[in-house]
Each structure stands twice: as structure tokens, then as C-alpha cells.
Amino acid sequence: MEAEHCFRVGDPRSPRSNVAPPSVHAESYWLGLLKSPGRPVDVLFPENRSSQIAQEHLAAATKTLGWALSLDAVRFLNSHVQMLRRIRSEGGQISLLVVISAAEVNNFSLAPEASRVFGKLGITVEFELTGD
């Protein structure tokens, strides 16, 4: 994952004006875009009705924000758990910003399993509703 914006403690800050004296960043910062991995792999076996029902439920679940966020969170956290723990152990803070189009989602819930994982790793989850 590439950083969209980042700086390290001690790096020079961009001057806000020509009058202010130059300064440096007091903390490190890294911002990256976590893209949804999209729809899960199709595991449909057409001759098996149970498989069809499971695939339909999985497709419906990924269309709701709460389940989609939970699935994405588990995938991401499983891949990066050691790095996230290291950041926290070194005094860093981790936040996940979820930007939601209010036009597409009128409500959502976050599964307890996802809440537990975020809490255990000390990750703050922030939601931003947009008018799009």
C-alpha cells in the first residue's frame, strides 16, 4: 500500500506564510487508501442448492456496509496485524476513516467481531458521511 500523504518527525514543515519561521513536524504521519478488495471469489456450484443459497447470502452481505467493512477489516488486519501491533507498541495511533455516501447507505451496523478486532488492536474507526 502506497502512502497518499506522509512525513516523519523532524521533517521540515511546508511554510504557511513567508513571515513565519521554518518549523519541523513534531510527529510522524502516514495516510494510505485502503481499497475494498471487491466481491469475494465465486464459489458457486450450480448443481448444489446449498451452495447457491450461500453465494446469494454472501453477495447480499457484501452489499451492506457493516458486513462489507467487517470482511474488509478482517482481510486487512490478518495481513498486517504485526505491523499494526508494532505501531501501537511504539506509541503510534491508528485510525480507520470510512467515507460513506449518504445517498447509497441509509443505515449500517458494525459486527461485534469487527468491533472486537479493532478494539484489540487499538484502532479508532471514524465515519464520514458525504452528500454524494
User: Roughly what fraction of the amino acids lie in strands?
Assistant: 15-25%
In the predicted model, the low-confidence regions spanning at least 5 consecutive residues are none
Count of discrete domains: 2
Q: What's the number of helices? A: 3
> If you compute it from the alpha carbons, what radius of gyration comes out, rounded to the nearest whole angstrom?
20 Å
The counted number of beta strands is: 4
* Terminal Cα span: 26 Å
By oligomeric state, this entry counts as single chain
| Alpha-beta classification | alpha+beta
Spatial sequence of strands, sheet with the most strands: 1-2
Shape: elongated
Characterize the largest beta sheet: strand count, sense, and whether it forms a barrel. 2 strands, antiparallel
Q: What order do the helices and strands follow?
A: EEHHEHE
How are the SSEs placed, and which strands pair?
Elements: E1 3-7, E2 29-32, H1 49-62, H2 65-89, E3 94-101, H3 112-120, E4 123-130
Parallel strand pairs: 3-4
Antiparallel strand pairs: 1-2
Helix pairs in contact: 2-3
What does this 3D model show about the protein?
The protein is of the alpha+beta class and 132 residues long. It folds into 2 domains: 1-33, no CATH class; 38-130, no CATH class. Helix content is 36%, strand content 19%. It has 3 helices and 4 strands, in the order E-E-H-H-E-H-E. The strands form 2 sheets. Strands 1-2 form a two-stranded antiparallel ribbon. A two-stranded parallel ribbon has the order 3-4. Strand 3, helix 3 and strand 4 (123-130) form a beta-alpha-beta unit. Helix 2 (65-89) packs parallel to helix 3 (112-120). The model has no long low-confidence stretch (mean pLDDT 76).
